[in-house]
Amino acid sequence: MSLPNTLVEARRILSEGGTSEDLVRASLDRAQASTLGAFNTLDREGALERARTLDLAQARGEAKGPLWGIPVAVKDNLCTKGMRTTCGSRILQDFIPPYTATVVQRLEDAGAIVIGKTSQDEFAMGSTSGTNAFGVVRNPVDPERVPGGSSGGSAVAVASGIVPVSLGSDTGGSIRQPASFCGVVGLKPTYGRVSRYGLVAYASSLDQIGLFANSVEDAALLLDLISGHDVHDNTSATTPVPDHLASLGEGVQGLRIGIPAEYWGEGLDAGVRASLEEGVAKLRAAGATIVPVQLPSTRHAISAYYVIAMAEASSNLSRFDGVRYTGRDKDARTLLDMYSRTRTSLFGEEVRRRILIGTFVLSAGYYDAYYAKAQRVRELIRREFQEAFAQCDLLATPTAPTTAWKIGEKMDDPLAMYLSDIDTIAVNLAGLPGLVVPVAPVEGLPVGLQLIGPAFREDLLLRAGKALESAG
Ligand code: GLN
Questions:
Q1: How many domains are there within the chain?
Q2: What is the domain range of residue 105?
Q3: From ligand 1's centre to the CA of 171, what distance in Å?
Q4: How far is the CA of 265 from the centre of ligand 1 (A)?
Q5: Is residue 417 part of a domain?
Q6: Which residues are designated catalytic?
Q7: Which of 111, 113, 213, 382 is the one with CA 20 to 30 A from 222?
Q8: Is 171 in the pocket of ligand 1 (CB under 6 A)?
Q9: Is the whole model's pTM more than 0.85, yes or no?
Q10: What is the mean pLDDT of residues 91-101?
Q11: Alpha-carbon distance 301 to 160, whole Å?
Q12: Measured between alpha carbons, how far is 367 from 345 in angstroms, rounded to an integer?
């Protein structure tokens, strides 16, 4: 069976007599044959069994839900009851959650079949998926290059046609940057739009679950399914969820698209710039007005982000102590020794680096100099976005200054790695939604244009994304 690239196509196959079992088997076969390393865990038996159950229900006329019988993939930091959830870390190598994340539950309630857990940077810390403890993750366009990260496996699973859609998480760009590097659509919703219940926390004030798709229409469909308040997450918003699918075709006529100079300056690769400018020109041709805007505090975003994210991470990851969950160094003789050996041997280098820096910036004597200051910068960034949105409806920026780099590059230079996040992190600091849509490749490598909107205006992003996609 040939695999569908989109949800829309998958639904057509199923409505024309195709079975979910065939679809899921084809998807699993492709995943198993793939050498790109998109998955940490595949649940072949479980997925096929569920597919057969859904096929039987379908035959009885009991099919319900827009994703009925369709295979999907979810990032390995989303809890799945009975299915291993590792966060790409050896410390959670055998962790089987007792419950399912709300987002995953919503997909399953709509009839989706989770075929497995996608590979990622350990605890979502990274920009390449290169710190995944269970194997290398490769870019489908050029396997010698990184897919981006941290949600690299989810991007690869969609880009290589294993599943039509997948879920990821985005704390500082982890959905948008791999979407750009792999040439797929990626959406990071507004903070609070989607429940984080069951997402293993990295930096709780920045983390947001979002999605990958091969079309903007699929992104809208999936967003509608996963959005909305959840009693299990008190940071999830009660703001009503509009019908994103219904407004998708409204176009960009009359919309003002802001171009923040700070994102388009120094450091942006010339080829990437040309491709992105061509994308913006298409939006203009479709009826949008282009307006210059300013976001001067952008230059402080990386410093503020890495202080806040590491501070929160040091606190969140303190729960992995060798006592709870799984993963324990067995040679220790005292409790203290056990904590320290477990955390030294089972966390990777990048995770340990961040826990140490995070603990440092929160410690007495340094708190004001680092953490409190970073919070003030965060507030400035938030306000500047608000001021920009008084002059325009949405913003268009690069997603990353370059295309995907070679595997191994930047791995021994953490600072260079952090700097590559320059275009995505301010959006998380301000809690805003960001959508990435592919534009023309540069030397064969994918590039995505990032559209940023005011809080809860995913509808505007998706409309503009659709217009860009339709412009070809
Ligand atoms: N690259 C960023 C970091 O390492 C973002 C990661 C993410 O969004 N999870 O923190």
A1: 1
A2: 7-226
A3: 5
A4: 22
A5: no
A6: 75, 150, 174
A7: 382
A8: yes
A9: yes
A10: 96
A11: 33
A12: 28
